[in-house]
Amino acid sequence: MKNKKTNLIAEYMNYFIKCKDYLFGSRMSEPSFAPLISKKVKATLFLGLLFTYGVYGKTEAQQVTMRVNKGDLKTIFLEIKKQTGYHFFYDESLFNDLRKVNVNVSNQKLENVLKELSDELPLQFEMHKKHIIVLPSAPKNTVQAQQQYTIKGKLIAQKDGAPIVNATISLNGTNTGTSSDDKGNFSLKSAQPEGILTISHLSFKSQTVKFNSTTASDLTVSLEQNDSALEEVVVVGFGTQKKVNLTGAISHVGKEAFENRPVANIGQALQGLVPNLNITFGNGSPNSTPGFNLRGGTSMSYNTDTKVFESVNGDPLVIIDGIESSTGALNQLNPNDIMDMSFVKDASAAAIYGTKAAYGVILVRTKRGEFNQKGRIAYNFDSNFDTPSGLPDILNAYEIQKSGMDRTLWTNGKPNTSDEKRLEMIQKYMDNPIPENAWYQEGNTINWVANVNPFEEAVKKWTPMQKHTLNLSGGAESINYYISGGLQNQSGMYKINTDKLKRYNALMNINAKVNSWFSVFGKIGFDQTNFNSPYIVGGKGSIWSAMMTETHKNINMPIQTGPNDPLPNTYTDNILAWLSYGANNQSMDRRVSLLISPEFTLIPNALKLKADLSYQPQSYSLNRYSPKLNQVVDSWQYTTQQAEAAENRAYFDNNNTNKYLVNIYADYKKTWAEKHNFSTVVGYNQEQTKFNQITNTFRKLISADIQNPDAAEDPSLHTVSRNAYTLAGRAVFGRVNYNYAEKYFFESNLRYDGSAKFTEKDRFVTFPSFSAGWRISQEGFMEGTRSWLNELKLRGSWGKLGNQPSSIYPYQATMNTGKAPYLINGEQIVYINPPGLVSPYLTFEKARTWNIGLDGTFLKNRLDVTFEYYNRKTTDILTDGSAAFPSVLGTAAPLENSGILETKGFELSFLWKQTINSELRYRVGLNLSDYLTKVQHYASNTTMMIVNQSNREVMYDGKTVGEIWGYRTGGILQESDFAGKNPLNGNWIYNGAYQGTLFPGYIWYQDLGGPEGIPDGKIDAGLNTLANPGDRVVIGNSTPRYRFGITGNVQYKNFDLDFLFQGVLKRDVWAGLSSYWGGGAGSKWMYERSWTPDRTDAEFPMYGSSVNVQDRYLINGAYLRLKQAVLGYTLPKELTKRFGVERLRFTLAGYNIFEVTKIPTIFDVDQISADYPQKRSIAFGAQIVF
Amino acid sequence: MKKNIFRLILIGAASSLLLTQSCNDKFLQLSPETELSKDNSLYTETELTLYLNNLYSRYILGHGTGWADAKVNPNVVGGSHLLASDFMTDNMVRYGNISNILDNTFIPPNGGASVDWTWENLRSVNYFIQNYTNALPAVNNDITRLNKYIGEAYFFKSMDYYRKLMLFGDVPWLSSDFNIDSKELFNPRDKRTVVADSLMKTIDMAIAGLEGVTGRPDGRINQDMALFLKARIGLFEGSFRTYHNELSLQSTAKSFLEASVDACEKIIATGRYQLYATGDSPYWKLFTFKKDPNSDGNKEAILAKVYDGTVVGHATQRYWDQNNSLSGARPAGGATRGLIDEYLCIDGKPIYTAGSEGNYTANPLFKGYDGLWSELENRDPRLKQTINYPGENRSLFNRTDGTTSLEKNGITYPRLSYNVSGGSTVTGYLPIKHWMGDRTENEATTNGQQTAIEFRYGEVLLMLAEAKAILGTLTQNDLDRTINLLRQRAGFDFAKYPSSKLELGNPPADPRLDEIYATKLDYAVSPIIREIRRERRIEMVLEDRRYEDLMRWKAGNLMTVPLRGMKFTAEKGKLYDGTHTAKPIIALKEEVNKDIFLDNNGFIIAYPRSATITNGVALWADYRYYWPLPLYDLTLDGNQLVQNPGWLGAK
After folding, report:
1. DSSP letter for each residue of A242-291
2. Which of A452-461, A935-944, B11-20 has the highest mean predicted lDDT (pLDDT)?
3. Mean pLDDT over the full length of chain A
4. Which residues in chain B touch residue A816, judged by CB atoms under 8 angstroms apart?
5. What are phi and psi of A921, to 5 degrees?
6. B427, B336 contact by CB (below 8 A)
7. φ and ψ at residue B390, rounded to 5 degrees
């Protein structure tokens, strides 16, 4: 008996623990099993249990007879109690939502009746003496824990048999689950010897497997790769969505696009990958980062260089880990830390971001750890070698001198005697290039005749770049982490005084489940870029354009005088002297991102409250130092050619931006009747940005190295300036999603947005979007197509978003102050300027976008096709007033919300993937996109001018953005086209339409314009209006049309090859550059193709003659480029295991490898200018995982 | 359930705390942090002063600032307006081909900037005039205490309209700054008579406002400056109406001329100014001051822009010396023979004293063109202080080490090539007015210190003489206190050459100049006025006066006098034969019909290969007395502006 008693106590204790678990939820980590019984009931139950202590025993058989039609449980329980005397213990809340039941029994055993009830309802009953405890039914297995069976198995990938790590295995009908380990093995316990397992993994298709007592200990399950793009989960604003449920135009790029790529930044990696993600390259300097744009023309903005409003392709909003950021910050991230990116192109999902997302949103997630994942150390290394992708092949000193003299000769002039002498001396130097021959003296003046090729002197053939990333990731049951550190060390292309960029990245992402209802994500991001580059002092302009111009300095002067010259080894005025003499910029750009995102589960599986609390300090500093420079220029005396170089000077710019952001939002989801899926997000946002900048200029410093304001000859010359502003915004936002059986979808986003940039009455505006989708393939009538059509979805969206003006205080007229370039009684004066004009009607710019999309998946998920067509109309663009004002206004007309721009375009993408066998599979993608932007209304141009007062192109109603106005080329004039020469001044007599003074070798243009279209005998620009453009017509368009990308990936055994072609099918380029046409140093390419009296059939006119924009010499800017190719080899695991290495992969990669194009080879296809060249790269990389 | 509610309350409380923290009315109400806002300005005398300060660099251009190569439109070349303006007159030519401004092919520009149809500066003045009374409370509502401020504003307004009147004739008279809904924006131009009358009223208000305000020429605007400006305006309008008989306003000229006379007399009466006459070459020296225009006892400057070379500086001297027009923007070139010929001989008589064209009787003192710059000898002493005589100053200057020495540097002769890419005088007459011979100043790139004299006493004397001469009230006493003072300062020796003193009853005969006036002008010029004009051309050369003079004298046709340089004699041919490339004689090779082209008399032709002119004769047409309005303004809806006759867009 003692034994029996002990046993009973043990049994009771066991039971007690079980009950407690269910009731108080201590072991329930999954939120879905949150405790269900209120405190009051718990107390009662506990007392009841105590009361029953010791009397627990086998129940006597009891018979029940009852007939209940649609009765509720309480009634049934009462009846049972009446018949049997058994008490029921239960939590009232258990009965919520339980349906009514029918009981129709006569003289059934109580146990059987309860069994019947428990079969019908999600309840179970436990009987103890005269008590029956009612429990939820889920945790059946643990009830019979002492009867467990162990199921063991291994998960492998179908295609290559590789183990599948971290898959989730759950036992159907129970709460039991586990995940596979790093070898793909798993094991779990089952109460039953047979059952069904469900196996799921992000990258594989979910699968169910039956097991029985014979198979249970050795299951091998091979899973099919989940290649259907529709199954992807993508980030959207304040949440994620399965791609299959999307109703907007959203593209998605995974981490594979960034890992081990031969690129310096994220922008470079993305070009060509995402249709209508337009990446633009300013120049090739390591510190210049590409610009991003989604879908072309967005708005108009004032160009401070050209002083006109232009249509611009604005930046999308960048959200990194839920926090508003910028394209600049994006380019500063370590590409290896990116988990994925979503590109929201239409208004649908963007509307939740309101006034900043009018032009799309790029959502970026950085990598995180995973729960229950073994710790992992990965090290990535890449070593690049970059070479300029296009450099002008310039003429030598002799050719430059000769070509100028030839032109003089052929244009009714005579090369003067000093030019002839010069030519002779250049020849002498080139025959014997010693420093003493680099100059000759005329009178007291030195004439320089060296032959410097600045590109050879200053530009490196190959420059190195290295990238290192070390990251740790992993997770325990309630915490995971990703910690990463990166270093990029990049050398620029200057051979002299090489520019150097260093980027440091650190990232720590931690996700913690604090308890069943509270978890928190924390992030610390640190990105810093240091850039050291030569500083070219004021007045010298851009080194890259200088290398082509002012050839007397930049070609004919040596960089330094020779060792035997009267002033030996001294810098000259060659631009390369300025590059090398020691003036430098050192900049540091540091961004820190601190983020805490708590998440509270208020109702399990239904209601969550989340917040993002973020602080993003950014600091920038520039330290510029330009020492005094003594030069030799035109005499053997030291001189200084620039005021800035007449003294030691230092300049400091220190600025910081502090950005505070709070998002608080709740999301709620619920499903009714299994088919009505509803979810919503409602939130609040508040942000503030404070900017503060102080600049200091220290002049006449005593020593080159001591940059202290007191260590100066005249400390009173130091100047300080300050700039500061604050931006603030506040908004309420929300989203509603509804779908019926994942077949019909509806979504609406809305934001009520307010900005400090407007007056109180105009401050808040509402921006809505609506979208809907129809998954046709889910319809019954599509049954017949299932064999070849896996998915077909039609989508549509409409939305109206806002955009804020870029100026900080647009509605407030200010009077700026400064120091005038004027002395009164010897003192510099401070001035106040008159205020500008401000429109009293300022408001947000609005962008209305509609989008139609079609997604299809065909042929057993092998082919994905997506098509989008969109129309974006931006209205209320802030431009020069609704009317044009005469000059007497005396100032810039105030900006008014009047411009209208419309962009239409499409995106089309195909992705084909196939697994041939376990050793070979491949994937090929093609995307094609296009847009064209039209100016619907540009208010201030009422007279429809095509160029403005300063001969700058100006927008007019109906203008197609990018159009090029020019003349129709007639041809190149030959002597036979002239009626001889005028004996009075020796000029050629030309009887064609007047177009200035002409010579053989010049171009003549077609006479198109005049009153009523009748040629008027002169070539001119008319009134510069659309009605009278003179002889000019639209001859082309510079917008890149039909941009495409071809991506490919082949995996064969341990090899993988990844490539990306990218290009443009149509584009016209007018290159009005001296590096192209000649004049200064010019390029041989052009020189050898231009007209001479001996080469009258040349393709181009006389070298250096004046050339107007015209149709014949437009460059066909179409191209196809192999943008990236990465060949990888992963060492066999068996081999690397021996060294404790999980994975070891080597890559050989190239960037901008070759092009097929008609663009002259002296240019990069993306940068038709004489600026810091773009690069081609070859890279070697390794990836080691421990 | 309760636990959920509890959590909700907790979180709700926490988040509302967060919100209310930053939730206040000010959160979205932000104002500029580093700029003044419009609604809060011009309330103190200090603010009035600082606001007026913005006008100084707008209106008083001097030698410019920084690179100083900005073009003062509508000049032909860029750089200091004092030097550059003469390049669009018969005084100076530059290398290369003739500008379209001088060959009748200039097309009205689309925008106003290139013809100076600009209104930003005037708006700034008018804004002040509209708002300066904001400061009344600060001066206890005593408006007289604001007089000096409004006086300054009216001074600048007068400067603005004076220039607009000179360039365009009729212009809209704007009395306030505008907003976009101002009806006056589309007003037609006001008649020149209205503009001139308003202008005279405005300058009178400036003078009245500045009552009692005196000061340095490089200080704030004072009453003397305003009087000077009034003298210029009066003379301009008075003489314009006198000679432009097509306007039929001759009868109204008198009051303007009298106003000019009155203003000049008042300046003279102050006794604050006198001609600078220190040293051997005071005339040359006058334009080479640095920093302080009053140093060395100089009391000639009335308004000057000064530079300290550290916070405000320019590169004018550098490029004037370098004579470098590589970029084509800065003035480079030489004086015309036409200018040289106008200088009197040292006896006060012209180079030709009798005869007729082709058969002149030369002044015995005149040495002719056949020597090496011998025509510069025995002339008005200002000639060699304006044009370099080889063997003196600039030709001995080594710009690279700053020395001036025949022995050390030899003589450098000017380049003549019409198309050498920089450094050519073309005519052989290299200007040295404004040239300093100072290596430090040459080395100064953007930090030059050369003083720019905008208003000087010498011009007061010329204005007085001319205005009185036109009025017919000129006396010998007037000549003696004006023209003859200038000649005395220039270095004429009245004792040795009594005829060098201009006498009202006995002006010298000048058949050459009379012939030019007779053929080029449509009215007769009396000998005394001819002499006063000569004096003005000589004295004020390269000071931005000649163009304006040609306009008001209705003498645009003088620009068609053939543009010539020196005579390229056989002797000079030997000099420039390419064998003299080192000291003592440096003359780089110039080949006839290659580098230089000569007329039938052996004189160098300017602009020899220009396509639009022949034989170095610039063109003139009377429509050019007024500049065109920009096409852009003319094409605006509701515009009531009318293009000046003769230009594109005229009806």
Report:
1. EGGG--S-EEEEEGGGTTT-S-SSHHHHHTTTSTTEEEE-----TT---E
2. A452-461
3. 86
4. 35-36
5. -145, 160
6. yes
7. -55, 135
Under a CB-based contact definition with an 8 Å cutoff, are residues B318 and B441 in contact?
yes
d(CA A748, CA A750): 7
Side chain identity, residue A737: N
Which residues are CB-neighbours of A1180 under 8 A, at least 6 positions away?
A382, A383, A1146, A1147, A1148, A1149
- Asked whether the CA dihedral B618, B619, B622, B626 is positive or negative, the reply is negative
CA distance linking residue B464 with residue B263, whole number of Å: 9
Rounded Cα distance between A386 and A1155, Å, is 16
> What are B634's two structure tokens?
């003319």
Record: contact B28-A421, CB cut-off 8 A:
no
**Residue of B34, B95, B99, B417 for testing the chain A interface, max A β-carbons within 10 Å:** B34
Which pair of structure tokens corresponds to residue B366?
Answer: 């005149």
Strand partners, A1092: A1095
Whether B36 sits inside 8 A of A943 (CB atoms) is no
**Which one of B38, B121, B633 has the shortest CB-CB distance to A813?**
B38
d(CA A402, CA A404): 5
* Residue B65: closest CA among B73, B74, B52, B56: B56
pLDDT, tens digit (0-9, with 9 covering 90-100), for B202-231: 999 999 999 999 999 999 999 999 999 999
The mean per-residue pLDDT over the stretch B602-620 comes to 92
Give A394's strand partners.
A1083
Tell me: the pLDDT tens digits for B561-609?
999 999 999 999 999 998 888 888 988 889 898 889 999 999 999 999 8
Which residue of chain A comes nearest to B19, CA vs CA?
Answer: A686
Residue at token pair 């004189």:
B603
SS3 string of A827-895? EEEEEECCCCCCCCCCCCEEEEEEEEEEEEEECCCCEEEEEEEEEEEEEEEEEECCCCCCHHHCCCCCE
Choose, out of B400, B420, B581, the residue to mutate when testing the contact with A (most A CBs < 10 Å).
B400
pLDDT in tens, A857-907: 998 888 999 999 999 999 999 887 756 678 888 888 788 888 999 999 999
Contact B399/A444, CB-based, under 8 Å?
yes
Confidence band for A231, pLDDT divided at 50, 70 and 90:
low
pLDDT in tens, B256-284: 999 999 999 999 999 999 999 999 999 99
ipTM associated with this complex = 0.93
How far CA B69 is from CA of A538, A1004, A1181, B75, B432, in Å, comes to: 15, 34, 54, 12, 19
Region A681-696: mean pLDDT is 95
Closest CA to A667 of A655, A649, A681, A648: A681
Name the minimum distance, in Å, from the CA of B492 to any CA of chain A. Answer: 35
Count of pairs with CB atoms under 8 A, one residue in A, one in B: 321
Residues of B in contact with A808 (CB under 8 A): 32
Q: Give per-residue pLDDT as tens, A342-400.
A: 999 998 888 899 888 889 999 999 999 988 888 999 999 999 999 999 888 899 999 99
